[in-house]
């Protein structure tokens, strides 16, 4: 009887950890930048933005499945795998991801401040500081790992449920969106939206969030692959559903002829759809997206440096605290980095070819993956994702320059 209870307890813990990893990846990609980018691009490109949504999901699949499987088989984090492929590459990857993570986290903190401002009328800077303190407390409590595994899925479900409800009320032109997902208008102009979405949902640290979480929680080796593949698929599905729900919610509003508030376009979508109640719902969605992304960004960014020295490994939680505190202070001093949210997504998209490319090379090295045979179709899928993001990344550089000048 005792053995059965132990087995049941083990399975429950395993399930909690898996769902924690799934939603850590998914909610890391569903931050304030995601809400801002999706709203801005949908209002600009209308139903044709469905093409960018579909393309980013396909690239998402190619990146996530490869990275989750190869890292877990090797039992090593992304920076260590990169160093095993080419000595020193891991340090470059870690530097780029930490810098990108900081940029994104400043935006996450800003979004959290705006969310609290919407809900309670508190100034965004004060709201950001409150959120930063909450995130720091989460990482310093005794059962921080368990708290994160439980909290992140709850926040994810809240966001998806509320955005789904708003989507239904806006009555979007789903048929047109389906057609434009494969036959968009102004194809060339969609390059920047594609690379920005990729950067915001699988670029930089985000691709590694779930895999690093599973490795840190003991999921390693080929025997873990069935569970890891399942978790990766659920993570991709979760992100995709949220992405589609938000796109359709915005499309329903703009297709009906409404003009979005330039100062806060995402909030105006909710307010137009449901009035003042919708505005408060937006505050909940924004804060949930922001706090979960603050946690995901800090945790994953620090996971890229903690293996470089025993002291970093020993005090990694304090590094996370410092990461959050630094991001919060920068926002409190500088203010809301509106353009930075979109630019950070694009830059993170440029990092993806390097990080994914190093992992794909690792899949062919016995010194990294042992006797594991990585599926050829998955490898090809990953190579296509690398090529597409390299080409799109170069083409988007001009778009980034235009945004910065604007």
TrEMBL record:
Membrane topology: Multi-pass membrane protein
Segments crossing the lipid bilayer: 17-35, 41-63, 84-106, 118-141, 148-167, 187-211, 232-258, 278-303, 315-334, 340-363, 375-397
UniProtKB keywords: Membrane, Transmembrane, Transmembrane helix
Any Pfam family hit: Nramp
Subcellular localization(s) per the UniProt record: Membrane
Domain of life: Bacteria
PANTHER family per UniProt: SOLUTE CARRIER PROTEIN FAMILY 11 MEMBER, TRANSPORTER PROTEIN
Protein name: Mn2+ and Fe2+ transporters of the NRAMP family
Organism: Salimicrobium humidisoli
């Amino acid at each position: 009887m005792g053995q059965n209870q132990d087995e049941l307890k083990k399975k429950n813990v395993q399930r909690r950890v898996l769902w924690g990893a799934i939603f850590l990846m998914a909610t890391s990609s569903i931050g304030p930048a995601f809400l801002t980018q999706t709203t801005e691009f949908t209002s600009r490109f209308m139903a044709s933005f469905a093409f960018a949504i579909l393309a980013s999901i396909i690239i998402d699949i190619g990146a996530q499945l490869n990275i989750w499987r190869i890292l877990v088989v090797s039992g090593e984090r992304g920076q260590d795998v990169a160093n095993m492929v080419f000595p020193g590459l891991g340090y470059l990857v870690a530097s780029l991801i930490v810098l990108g993570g900081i940029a994104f986290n400043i935006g996450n903190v800003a979004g959290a401040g705006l969310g609290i401002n919407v809900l309670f009328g508190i100034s965004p800077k004060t709201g950001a500081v409150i959120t930063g303190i909450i995130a720091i407390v989460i990482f310093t409590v005794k059962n921080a790992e368990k708290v994160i595994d439980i909290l992140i899925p709850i926040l994810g479900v809240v966001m998806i449920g509320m955005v789904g409800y708003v989507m239904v009320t806006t009555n979007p032109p789903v048929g047109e969106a389906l057609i434009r997902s494969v036959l968009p208008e102004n194809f060339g102009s969609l390059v920047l939206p594609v690379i920005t979405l990729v950067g915001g949902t699988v670029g930089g640290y985000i691709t590694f969030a779930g895999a690093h979480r599973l490795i840190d929680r003991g999921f390693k080796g080929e025997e873990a692959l069935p569970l890891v593949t399942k978790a990766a698929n659920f993570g991709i599905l979760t992100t995709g559903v949220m992405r589609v729900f938000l796109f359709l919610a915005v499309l329903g509003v703009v297709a009906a002829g409404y003009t979005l508030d330039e100062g806060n376009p995402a909030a105006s979508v909710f307010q137009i759809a449901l009035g003042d109640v919708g505005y408060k719902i937006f505050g909940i969605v924004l804060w949930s997206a922001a706090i979960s992304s603050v946690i995901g960004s800090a945790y994953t960014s620090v996971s890229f440096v903690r293996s470089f020295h025993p002291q970093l490994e020993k005090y990694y939680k304090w590094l996370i605290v410092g990461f959050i505190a630094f991001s919060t202070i920068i926002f409190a001093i500088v203010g809301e980095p509106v353009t930075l949210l979109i630019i950070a997504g694009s830059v993170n998209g440029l990092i993806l070819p390097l990080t994914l490319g190093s992992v794909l090379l690792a899949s062919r090295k016995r010194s990294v993956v042992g006797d594991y045979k990585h599926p050829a179709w998955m490898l090809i899928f990953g190579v296509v994702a690398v090529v597409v993001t390299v080409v799109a990344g170069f083409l988007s550089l001009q778009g980034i320059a235009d945004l910065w000048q604007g």
